[in-house]
Specification:
One of its GO terms (cellular component) is mitochondrion. Belongs to the peptidase M76 family. GO terms for molecular function: metal ion binding; metalloendopeptidase activity. The structure is a single chain. By secondary structure, this protein is an alpha/beta fold. Helices cover 49% and strands 8% of the residues. It has seven helices and four strands. A four-stranded mixed sheet has the order 1-3-4-2. Strand 3 and strand 4 form a beta hairpin.
Length: 192
């Protein structure tokens, strides 16, 4: 989920389950050593976007989200909504794809429903968020077409959370940009 600066939801010290900020920071450091995260960081830097050591940080979040990308601030990972390393890895990968999109598109406007939908389509498709094993664990059982259904469901969830996008606007935007954005696999040669 990508958001405008300051709109990712207040951070609190309330514990809703999940892990501590320190535990999450440790898992973020581990995720930085995974091949996919290293690849995305390398391509962000090749695109002219330097990400410092504090670009990805663990925080406690009030909103029921796993994390977010904030232009000019970096990536937040919501420690109180995550429990295991794989979840942290997925959030970091998903949000790095948003950061890459923001870096390569000088005119990306997160308040534009189509721009937001496109980045969500790419992040959902390229990050592995919708791998069939993850979908089974979420309770979604469908063999054919599960990945696109999952991406669509997750795009709608994220874009409708954008204060500039009604449900109808989010759906129209997603449909309008689907083919172009789903097939845009940069920086990968093909969808991983």
């Amino acid at each position: 989920m990508a958001t405008e600066p300051g709109s990712a939801g207040g951070y609190s010290s309330a514990v809703d389950g999940g892990m501590t900020v320190d535990e999450c920071d440790s898992m973020i450091r581990r995720s930085l050593r995974t091949p996919m995260v290293k690849f995305l960081k390398e391509h962000l830097e090749k695109s002219g976007c330097n990400i410092g050591s504090n670009f990805i940080k663990a925080v406690r979040c009030d909103k029921k989200v796993s994390g977010g990308y904030l232009r000019g601030e970096g990536i937040v990972v919501c420690s109180n909504h995550l429990k295991i390393q794989d979840e942290v890895n997925q959030v970091v990968i998903h949000e790095l794809i948003h950061a890459y999109d923001d870096c390569r598109a000088a005119n990306l406007d997160w308040s534009d429903c189509a721009h937001h939908a496109c980045s969500e389509i790419r992040a959902g498709h390229l990050s592995g968020d919708c791998h069939y094993k993850r979908e089974l664990l979420r309770g979604f059982v469908k063999i054919r077409g599960h990945e696109q259904d999952c991406v669509r469901r997750r795009v709608m969830k994220s874009v409708t959370a954008n204060p500039y996008c009604s449900e109808a606007a989010a759906k129209d935007a997603m449909e309008a940009v689907w083919d172009v954005c789903y097939n845009d696999t940069k920086p990968f040669d093909r969808a991983p």
